Amino acid sequence: MAFSADVLKLDTKREVERITAALRKQVGQVLRRRGAVIALSGGIDSSVVAGLCARAFGPTKCQGLLMPERDSSESTLALSRSVAESFGIPFVLEDISTTLDAIGCYRRRDEAIEQVVPDYGPGYKSKIVLPGARAGADYNVYSIVVERPDGTIEKHRLPLEPYLQIVAATNFKQRVRKTLEYYWADKLHYVCTGTPNRLEYDQGFFVKNGDGAADVKPIAHLYKTQVYAMAAELGVPEAVRSRPPTTDTYSLAQGQDEFYFALPYAEMDLCLYGKNNGVPPAEVAKAAKLTTEQVEWVYGDIDKKRATTRYLHERPLLVEKPLEV
Amino acid sequence: MSDVEAEKKVRAFLLQRFPDAKRAGDDDSLLDMGVIDSLGILDVAEFLSSDLGLKVEDDDLVPEHFESIAALLRFVAARRSGSA
């Protein structure tokens, strides 16, 4: 049988049962907590996790957090609120802009951008991008895209130091959010949920001790295509299901595929599935409407990202493990 | 700086910044061996610029110039002589 997107089809009813049973056991018996905190971004992953937690524990044992900041898109707040409301989950709004300002997130980021675009300042917008599979670039070297107040757009390759400083500064966003999530988790004696899908988990698309920190990660085994199927099953609002995946981290709109993944998620899922299951690139190429060379490039890129992000998955390394713990 | 000195500097930089480079022969792929990644390429490009005074353009960031120690040394020699 020819390889096709059907490999990602899922019995969603059964999967909901399986995950909610696992969550109840993990949270109630292993971690011994009373419920779950979910940071709602208005994206598909956190919405599905919210729906799963509401089913697993009941909505009143869930706490939704809405944590927009200055660079969040205008739709973020309304979408995340609609998710909490549709599942009946209580939620609080914690705008993190002031905290990020105080800790120097925006200033440090802008100072780094100014090293590349000296006139960068108020009214400018920016994002960082990768070339991606279609460009067939040899190296994953980031560029910064800047939009001036007059609408003109410039793109520059990022030298190492400003690149690292931009990433370090923007990572404050995920880490401040996680700090607040754990405040609420501690206060309510709940667990903190992590919302990576399989692509994100596998390819290291998370901030260590930021969105990568969690007590449970209930959808880390699901391809993004399957997360969308679960969203339909759980009744995630249509506006969330039809929103293209975004990082919602930079002031210019930024798709996840231009920031990190080599391809849009549907094609990326097929490549990752194909690679994980030993499917020849030529077969994946037909199903994903790519060239064989592009799929070979993505297979290589998957390995590169696994290697470079292994550090993110590592626990702190000990010289000697105390056997009593 | 002579070509020999420039080559010495490049080799010393690689060993100091990427200790696994000592495992690599001159023609081995530094990326395939996991000695260096994309960030490392940027690191090398900055070294060429700051320590050897060579201008590295976006179009220069290709395997032809950065894949191996030998490729890098060829690129440095060519750029220093003005032929690349």
Structural write-up:
The complex is a heterodimer of chains A (325) and B (84). Chain A has one domain (5-101, 165-310): HUPs (Rossmann fold), CATH 3.40.50.620. Chain A has 325 residues and is an alpha/beta fold. Chain A has helices at 12-30, 44-57, 76-87, 97-103, 105-114, 160-188, 198-203, 224-234, 238-241, 256-259, 265-276, 281-288, 292-308, 310-313; strands at residues 36-40, 62-66, 91-93, 125-129, 143-147, 153-157, 191-192. In chain A, 48% of the residues lie in helices and 9% in strands. In chain A, helix 5 (105-114) packs antiparallel against helix 6 and helix 11 runs antiparallel to helix 12. Chain A contains 14 helices and seven strands. In chain A, the strands form two sheets. Chain A has a four-stranded parallel β-sheet, with helices on both faces. In chain A, strands 4-5-6 form a three-stranded antiparallel β-sheet, with no helix packed on it. The model of chain A has no long low-confidence stretch (mean pLDDT 93). In chain A, a hairpin with a 5-residue loop joins strand 5 (143-147) and strand 6. With 84 residues, chain B is mainly alpha-helical. Chain B has one domain (3-81): ACP-like (Non-ribosomal Peptide Synthetase Peptidyl Carrier Protein, Chain A, Orthogonal Bundle), CATH 1.10.1200.10. Chain B is built from four helices and no strands. Chain B has helices at residues 3-17, 38-52, 63-66, 69-81. In chain B, helix 1 runs antiparallel to helix 4. The radius of gyration of chain B is 12 Å and the shape is globular. The A-B interface holds A 138-141, 157-161, 163-164, 304, 307-308 and B 31, 34, 37-39, 41-43, 45-46, 58, 61-63, 66.
